[in-house]
């Protein structure tokens, strides 16, 4: 009997009428058999033999080795449910042999499983309607610090209290609060926050969240955060190189800013939400990246228009200690004593131009693209350059390329990828007043990356392309 088939036999008691969680109702006894080990020194070899012969009971989260019934000083091994203690015809040759060798006795065993054993899926499957269970209890949710965040539908309403309590019990031990989102992010305000209800636990949404070695502290009720974007945060940050300058226009509490600054990338992070700005500033401090990250609290369009001048008007240096390279040659007595390696103090100058712009506001980021028109021909840039031609900041006059723009957006699901890309590029072209099609994307080092599905008919993309010179230097 396979592990999957065995597990199917051990299901919790069904109670379709339950609306208030009763943990005691999930205690159930299963009569099976067990092999009592006569000498503890044989446990290892017998375990191996019974596993190889497929006699052992193997189901998730249950130890094969238990205390023998009525024999507190002996151990027993649980046997699969079709083996009967009083019917040797159900025994395998291996089990028969070790019984004949007087190494084990096969005895009846009452396997008691309770609420603590069953998984979230098993508990909910025993409560919600049997038909179409995928509809009646959610299997997708996100964890942010000690908060578990649900998006419940109307079908979940009768079970929401049970769902939340079971999730607290069955999720990792850090979960203390379960909330349900009551509206769509961004529909009520420009800060991407949402109304919510607390389903279980204290109404405490001040969280500490760890992501890729960075610590983020924020009030989840006052800022935007999406743990499902962790891979997207990582993907873009990997494109940034130490010493580059990056402009994050809709930075939130810093999921791009902090890991990029840890790579010694100079980052200017902006968010319109004062609370996001506050926590981004705090996260910069707590992660000790203030030499490389600078927070702003401005309108996104104004921030883009002024961003090029910020780098030119405010030269910045960052210094840090770096471990000196290993020197070849015989080890000295001092090194053998374990003295610390000498460290070199390195000073980096912030570049005069950005290498990347990040615009992670998929509901409306494309609408901010007109602010890139004439990015380097506006008066603040001209003043900072004392009237010099801004084209001299870039190749072929320097090694600098025009910046990459990474703009996130939503798109309806189309039958083909080509249709999705055409729709997105059409919107981008309209906002930039410059046609960018699929062939032009190759010239602009472009990429359209499918980030994730948002809903059955909706996808999130990140469109990356190098800012065209015709747009950047337009008067």
Give a verbal description of the structure.
It is a single chain. A hairpin with a 2-residue loop joins strand 2 (about 65-70) and strand 3 (about 70-80). The chain has helices at about 5-10, 45-50, 95-100, 120-125, 135, 160-170, 230-235, 255-260, 275-285, 300-315, 335, 380-385, 415-430, 440-445, 470; strands at about 30-35, 65-70, 70-80, 105-115, 140-145, 145-150, 175-180, 195-200, 205-210, 215-220, 245-250, 265-270, 295, 315-325, 345-350, 355-360, 405-410, 445-455, 460-465. It contains 15 helices and 19 strands. The chain is an alpha/beta fold. The longest helix has 16 residues, at about 415-430. The model has no long low-confidence stretch (mean pLDDT about 90). The chain starts with a helix and ends with a helix. The protein folds into three domains: about 5-115, 2-Layer Sandwich (Alpha-Beta Plaits); about 130-205, 2-Layer Sandwich (GMP Synthetase, Chain A, domain 3); about 225-325 and about 335-470, Vaccinia Virus protein VP39 (Rossmann fold, 3-Layer(aba) Sandwich), CATH 3.40.50. The strands form five sheets. Strands 13-12-11-16-17-19-18 form a seven-stranded mixed sheet, with helices on both faces. It is elongated and about 100 Å long. Its EC number is 2.1.1.228. GO terms for molecular function: methyltransferase activity. InterPro entries: MeTrfase_TRM5/TYW2 (IPR030382), SAM-dependent_MTases_sf (IPR029063), TRM5-TYW2-like_MTfase (IPR056743), TRM5/TYW2-like_N (IPR056744), tRNA_Gua_MeTrfase_euk (IPR025792). It catalyses: guanosine(37) in tRNA + S-adenosyl-L-methionine = N(1)-methylguanosine(37) in tRNA + S-adenosyl-L-homocysteine + H(+). Keywords: Cytoplasm, Methyltransferase, Mitochondrion, Nucleus, S-adenosyl-L-methionine, Transferase, tRNA processing.
């Amino acid at each position: 009997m396979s592990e999957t088939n065995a597990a199917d036999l051990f299901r919790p008691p069904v109670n379709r009428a339950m609306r208030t969680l009763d943990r005691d109702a999930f205690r159930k006894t299963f009569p099976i058999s067990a092999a009592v080990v006569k000498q503890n020194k044989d446990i290892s070899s017998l375990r191996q033999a019974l596993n190889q012969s497929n006699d052992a009971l193997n189901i998730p989260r249950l130890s094969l080795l238990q205390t023998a019934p009525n024999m507190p000083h002996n151990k027993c091994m649980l046997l699969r449910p079709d083996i009967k203690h009083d019917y040797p015809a159900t025994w395998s040759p291996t089990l028969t042999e070790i019984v004949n060798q007087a190494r084990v006795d096969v005895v009846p065993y009452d396997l008691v499983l309770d609420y603590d054993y069953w998984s979230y899926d098993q508990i909910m499957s025993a409560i919600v309607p049997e038909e179409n269970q995928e509809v009646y209890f959610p299997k997708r949710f996100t964890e942010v610090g000690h908060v578990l965040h649900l998006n419940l539908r109307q079908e979940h309403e009768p079970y929401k209290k049970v769902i939340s309590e079971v999730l607290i019990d069955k999720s990792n031990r850090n979960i203390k609060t379960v909330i349900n989102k009551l509206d769509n992010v961004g529909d009520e305000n420009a800060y991407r926050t949402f109304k919510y209800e607390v389903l279980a636990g204290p109404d405490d949404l001040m969280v500490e969240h760890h992501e890729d070695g960075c610590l983020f502290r924020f009030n989840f009720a006052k800022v935007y955060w999406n743990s499902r974007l962790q891979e997207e945060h990582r993907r873009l940050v990997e494109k940034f190189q130490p010493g580059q300058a990056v402009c994050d226009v809709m930075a939130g509490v810093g999921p791009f800013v902090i890991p990029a600054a840890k790579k010694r990338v100079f980052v200017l992070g902006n968010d319109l939400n004062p609370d996001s700005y506050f926590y981004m500033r705090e996260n910069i401090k707590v992660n000790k990246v203030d030499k490389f990250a600078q927070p702003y609290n401005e309108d996104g369009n104004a921030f883009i228009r002024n961003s090029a001048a910020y780098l030119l008007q405010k030269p910045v240096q960052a210094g840090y200690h770096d471990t000196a390279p290993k020197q070849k040659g015989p080890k000295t007595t001092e090194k053998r004593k374990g003295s610390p390696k000498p460290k070199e103090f390195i000073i980096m100058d912030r570049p005069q131009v950005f290498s990347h712009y990040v615009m992670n506001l998929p509901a409306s980021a494309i609408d901010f693209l007109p602010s890139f028109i004439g990015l380097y021909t506006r008066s603040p840039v001209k003043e900072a350059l004392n009237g010099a031609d801004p084209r001299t900041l870039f190749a072929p006059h320097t090694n600098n390329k025009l910046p990459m723009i990474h703009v996130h957006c939503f798109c309806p699901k189309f039958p083909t990828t080509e249709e999705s890309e055409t729709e997105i590029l059409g919107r981008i072209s309209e906002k930039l007043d410059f046609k960018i099609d699929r062939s032009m994307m190759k010239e602009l080092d472009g990429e359209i990356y499918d980030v994730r599905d948002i809903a059955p008919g909706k996808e999130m993309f990140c469109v990356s392309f190098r800012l065209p010179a015709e747009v950047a230097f337009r008067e």
